[in-house]
Each structure stands twice: as C-alpha cells, then as structure tokens.
Amino acid sequence: MNSNSKLFSVLSYFGILWIIGLVAAPQDSFVRFHVNQGILLFILEIITSAAGFILSLIPVIRWFGGLVTGALGIFAFVLFIMGIVNAAQGKMKPLPIIGGITLIR
Prior knowledge:
Elements: H1 3-11, H2 18-24, H3 29-56, H4 62-88
Helix pairs in contact: 1-2, 1-3, 1-4, 2-3, 3-4
C-alpha cells in the first residue's frame, strides 16, 4: 500500500469525495474498501438530513425530530472519525452497524 492509497482512502470519508478514490485507484482493494465505507456514511448522512427536514415540518413532533437528527448526526461524526483513523493506519476495519454492507466490490 502506498501513500496515495491512504490519501484516497481518507478522502473517501469526506462526503462526495469518495468519487476521487473510485476514479483514481479503481483496482486498489484497500481504496475500494474505504470508498464503500465512505459511500455508506454518505448515504447515512443524506438519510439523516432528509429525516430531520421531514420531521421538522411536523409541529407536534418537531422537537423529537431534532433529537433524532442530532443523535444520528453525532453517530455519523463518530463513524467519520473512525473511518479516517482506520484508513490512515492502513486498516480495513468495517464501520460499526453500517460497515457490513457492500455496495461496491
């Protein structure tokens, strides 16, 4: 594994930047693993934002929506940090809860 592999893997956790690793190193299994993890995290963040928006439109449960969105946001941030640390250390360790899902091989 070279330093570019680690760089592309770390970038995979920054929102849509997972595309860079997918395009720049399509045959690198380490990068592809972290790109997959980054896509999963990106999807979680989109779902969290959408759920927060929808729940904020309902006056009776607006406060509940804020709690749910906040909790999921904190969870996503923790996964973000874990993914970056794993990539920087050269580990292929799946993220808790969502990491077992494979979208790309």
